[in-house]
Amino acid sequence: MQYTDNTGLNISPDRPWLAPLAGYSDLCFRLLCKEFGAAVVCSEMVSSKGLYYNGNSTRKLLETTEKEAPAIFQLFGNDVDIMSYAMDYLVKGGYTWFDLNMGCSVRKVFKQGCGSSMMGDLNNSLEVAKAMIRIGGKGKVGFKFRLGVDSEQEVYKELALRLEDAGAGWITLHPRTAAQGFSGTARWAAIKEVVDAVSIPVIASGDLLEPEDGVRCIKETGAASVMFARGAIGNPAIFGEYTTLYKGETLKRPDPLKTMHLIQRHKEIALEYADERTALFKMRTFVPRYVRLFKGSKLLRQQLATCAGLEQIDAVIEKFFARCEAIDLDDTSETISMQNTSE
Q1: Alpha-carbon torsion 279, 281, 286, 287, what sign?
Q2: Is residue 127 situated within a structural domain?
Q3: Helical ranges in 143-255 per DSSP H
Q4: Are 232 and 238 in contact (CB under 8 A)?
Q5: H or E element: which one contains 57?
Q6: What is the pTM of this model?
Q7: 309 and 161 in a common domain
Q8: Same domain, 139 and 158
Q9: Which residues of the chain have pLDDT under 50?
Q10: Other CB atoms within 10 A of residue 334 CB
Q11: What is the pLDDT of residue 341?
Q12: 101 - beta bridge partners?
C-alpha cells in the first residue's frame, strides 16, 4: 500500500470517510458522523451552475463550521467556464478541499451530461478537472467516478492515470458502471487495479454497508481508505465501528445505549443548526434506519410518522428503548431498504 499523500487530509486506512450523499450529507449529518468517527466528510453535491446563477438553495448546501474540518465540498457540472467560476467563488470563500462528481447515475444528472455521463467524454472531463486543480491547487481536488458509462465503455483505469497526471490529490472509485446504478455487486477487484496503477491515494466505495465490509475491502484492495455511503445513512456509528474492527478490537452490535445516544445527538445538532420543523423531519427520516437492528422497529416507524412534535418523538423513542431487544443480525425481516442516493 504505497502512495503519496500531499492533500493535508492525512489519508490512511484507519481514517474512514463519509461519502457525498444528495439529500443526506448536510451539515447536521456531517457533524454527527464526525462525532461518531468519520475522519473526513463530504458535502452533498453542489451544482456549479447553481453557484454561477446565484441560486439560494445551492448556496445553502455550502453551510459549514470549523467543527467538521476537514470537509470536502463536491461539485457537479461539465462546463469548464462555469466550473472555473464556481471554484474561484469557493476558494475566495475560504473552502479548501473539493471533489468533482463523475459518479452520479441519477437520470436527471446524467441527462445534463454531468455525473457519470462525464465518463463518456474524457477529454472534456479532463479539461474540467484541470480547471478545478488550477484554481483549487494540486492535492486539494479529488475525483469520484465509476467504471464507465456501461460495460462496453469501461475507462476507469485510463481516467485514473490521466487525473493523476493532471494533479489530482486523490481519487474515489465506485466500481459499478453508470448503467448498473446500484444493482449487482461492486467489483472491488477494479479498485485494486487502480491502486496498483497510480501513486496517489485511492478511496474505496461501493457495497460498504457494514463495518466488516470496510475492513474486508481494505484487505482485498489495498485502498488508502474507505468511503461509507448507504452504510452511514443507516448507521452513522459505522465509522467508529469500522475503526474498532480495523484495529483488531471486539465490536458490540447492536448497542442500545449507543443507538439512543446517537439519536439524541442527531436531534441536538439538528436543533442547533436548523429549525424545529426541520429537526422533526430529520428524526422521522433517520430514526427508523438507526433502530433497524432492534425488534419492533417496523411499529416504531409507524408511530414516528404520526408524531407532530419533538416531545412526542422523544416519548415514543424512550418507550421503544425501554423494551427493545436486538434482532438476529441474520434476520432481515425488519430491516429498511436504503433509498438509492446520488453518491
Answers
A1: positive
A2: yes
A3: 156-166, 188-197, 211-221, 230-234, 238-246
A4: yes
A5: helix 56-60
A6: 0.92
A7: no
A8: yes
A9: 327-340
A10: 17
A11: 54
A12: 144
